[in-house]
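Supplementary Methods S3. Complex input for the adenosine-5'-triphosphate-bound model.
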Amino acid sequence: MKIVFEILTKIFPSRNKKSGEEVVAVNDFSFTIPDGKLIGLLGPSGCGKSTTLYMISGLQKPTGGKIFFGDDDVTELTTEKRGVGLVFQNYALYPHMTVKQNILFPLQNLRGADKLPKKEMLERAHYVAKLVQIDELMERKPSELSGGQQQRVAIARALVKMPRVLLLDEPLSNLDARLRLQTREEIRRIQRETGITTIFVTHDQEEAMSISDMIVVMKLGVVQQIGKPQDVYDDPTNLFVAKFLGTPPVNVFNGTVKDGKLYIGEDAVLDVKGVSDQDVYVGIRPEGFIVDENGPFHCNLRSVEVMGRDVSVVSDNPAMQSAVIRSIVDADNKIDATAQTISYTLKPHKVFVFNKETEERIYFEV
Ligand code: ATP
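Predicted complex, serialized as structure tokens:
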């Protein structure tokens, strides 16, 4: 099921009538989510991710714009009529019911023509329980399950009505690190097996990058960039997106462009043909540094941390914006950890230049 947003906007009125400040939670969001894909809605707290999800689900009504499921305009439809499955962070299972009863609950609530024969309800419940691999636990109560198992029950309950769209709101936040990894792979597998268009809200960029077919990065209600996770990482449209994606994060410096050369401090670190003379921000991905004693970029060496295949080099420079510079280089590099300084050559496609005022990307010829 393809989903189309047409200039979707949500404005919350001010709570304080005097100040009159309304909150634009989502602003002019237009986008088509292709059929059968897993989309990660990503951004810091308050950027409008949940509001977008609630508008798709029908729990909140847009202030402006339209939502289509396929060719159907669902903007005015209730949640029940839309055919969406919803999974929340806190699972929201009924504690007094068994796993089986929890999964059956949405089917038992169907009325009229939608009502299914009991046999079919049970078959469906077993099918989804098997899909999320909890079919052995059907007679247990939620309190007798781990967090990961409870989340699987919540997903099974959302799938049992065979929704057209599956919506997941921070589904992994309550799980510990190991379970988070495992459950996110499970979500990917379940989504692939069912082929249901799925939208997944998270503030965790690594989570979104690892399982999404496409990510939507939001900031203050405004979509910043949409694309395949690797493409957005490799080619961020502005400084916010560059900083939001990547662990360790992009290294940011104050820089200057003069006569087609990019300077950080006194060092002419890269040729940036086609960029006019100006002050800029420079973002360098941690993997963009090549240790080179004759390299043009000079930094003060702080520490060298060997991590097996790679080495993490911590250094600093007066022009840096972040607390330290973290570069990741191959362990074959023999670095003298007692040296005071370290020099680098930069990989041009790992260096991003941004306008100092707008923080938009400035492209240069590599
Ligand atoms: P989080 O990750 O913290 O859940 P989010 O990205 O999901 O954040 P939203 O919950 O969509 O963000 O909120 C977006 C903005 O809208 C925020 O500024 C929030 O305070 C505001 N907002 C959300 N719901 C309401 C509401 N019912 N009334 C007024 N303002 C609201």
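Residues 12, 23, 25, 43, 45-51, 203 surround adenosine-5'-triphosphate (CB under 6 Å). The chain has nine helices and 21 strands.
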